[in-house]
Amino acid sequence: MDAGREPQQERSRATRARLLDAAVRVLAERGAAGATVGAVAEEAGVSRGAAQHHFPTREDLSLAALRHMLDRRGEELRRGVAAVPEGAGRTEAVVRMVVDAFSGVDFRAALQLWAAAASDPVLRERITPLEERMGREVHRAAVDLLGADESVPGVRETVQATLDLARGLGLANLLTDDGPRRARIVRQWALTLDSVLARPPGATDAPPDTG
Amino acid sequence: MDAGREPQQERSRATRARLLDAAVRVLAERGAAGATVGAVAEEAGVSRGAAQHHFPTREDLSLAALRHMLDRRGEELRRGVAAVPEGAGRTEAVVRMVVDAFSGVDFRAALQLWAAAASDPVLRERITPLEERMGREVHRAAVDLLGADESVPGVRETVQATLDLARGLGLANLLTDDGPRRARIVRQWALTLDSVLARPPGATDAPPDTG
C-alpha cells in the first residue's frame, strides 16, 4: 500500500461525508432549491471547488445526500433492532422505532426532495427507488421485530399502515412540535397492534357483518 | 340595489375564484416558489394587473389559496358526511373519506406550502392555524360519523391516528400512484377501527377479541 495515498483518500472521504451531512441540514432548512453546491460547501466549511469535485451538480449532491440519509437510517435501524426489549413494551418500542424513522432532520430534508420531485419528473424517477428501498427496510425490520406472520389476513396491511402512520406523524410534526400527542398515539397504536397481531392463525376478530 | 354595480362585483368574485383555483394547480405543480402572482394570473387567463388587485403578493395569494382549499374541503366533507351509508361498510366509507381529505391536487398544493413553511417562520406562523382548523374539522366529522365515544380510553388517539395515517398515505402517494395498496390499507384499518371502537359501552358489530 502506498503510504502517501491513503491519508489523501481518507481526507477525501472525510470531506465527502462532511458535505453530505451539510447537504442534509441545508435541504431541511432551505429546501431543494436552496441546497446549491455553493451553499452546502459553505455550510460544510469546504471550498466550492472541492465540493464540485465530489458533486458536480446540485442534483448529484441532493441524491447522494438522500442515499447518505438512507445508509445512516439503515445503521440506526440495525442498532435500534438490537436495542428493542423483549417482552412487555416491545411492541411500543418497535412502533417508536418506526415513527422515529420518519422524523428529525433527515425526514425534513427528504420531504423537501419529495416536494421538489412533485414538479420534476426526472428527480422523481431517481428518488422513487431510494424511497422504496427505505420503505422495504423499515417494513422488514418491523415484521421481524414484531414476529408478525404476514400470511395471516390483515397483518401485512396493518404493518404497512404503521409505516404510513409514521410518515403522517412526521408530516404533522413539521409545522408544530407535537411530541406529547405523538407519544400518546404511539402508545395506543402499540396496544391495537398487539391485539391485531395476537390473533391465532386464520382467526379474524371482526366477523363478516351479517347486519 | 345599484343594478350597474352588482354584475361588477359578480365579475370580481368570479375572477378571484378563478385565480384561487389556478393558484392551487400552480402550487401543486410548481411549488411555492413557482406560484408567483404572474404565473397564477397566466394560468387563470387573467391579466397580471387584475390578479395583483386581488392579491398584491405571492404570499397573499398562497394563503388565500390554502383558505380556499380548506373551504372547499369543508364543503366536500359536509357532502361526504351526507353520503356515508349506515350499517355495513360505514366505517370503511368514513376511513376512505378521511383518506380522501388528504389526497389529490389540494393535498399536493398544501404540501408545497408546508415544505416552503419549513424554511420560512412567518409563513409557518400563518399556515399553522389553518392546518389546525382543517385537522379539527376532519377529526370532528370522523368522530360524529363513527359514533366514537372519546371518553373511552384509546378512542381519541385511534381517531387521531386515522388522520395521521391519511396524511402519510397522501405523502406516499405523492411519488408513486399506490391506489391499490391504499385501498387494502383503508379496508384493514376500518376493521381495526371497528374492533377498537366497538368496546363497550356502545358495542356494535365487532365484539372485543377474546382470543
What is this structure's SSE topology?
Two copies of one chain form a homodimer.
Chain A: H1 5-34, H2 37-44, H3 48-54, H4 58-83, H5 90-101, H6 104-117, H7 121-146, H8 155-175, H9 179-197
What does this structure look like?
Two copies of one chain form a homodimer. The N and C termini of chain A lie far apart (77 Å). Chain A has a domain at 59-197: Tetracycline Repressor, domain 2 (Orthogonal Bundle). Chain A has helices spanning 5-34, 37-44, 48-54, 58-83, 90-101, 104-117, 121-146, 155-175, 179-197. The longest helix of chain A has 30 residues, at 5-34. With 211 residues, chain A is mostly helical. Chain A is elongated. Chain A has nine helices and no strands. At the A-B interface, helix 1, helix 6, helix 7, helix 8 and helix 9 of A face helix 1, helix 6, helix 7, helix 8 and helix 9 of B. Chains A, B: InterPro entries: Homeodomain-like_sf, HTH-type_TetR-like_transc_reg, HTH_TetR. Chains A, B: Keywords: DNA-binding. Chains A, B: GO terms for molecular function: DNA-binding transcription factor activity; transcription cis-regulatory region binding.
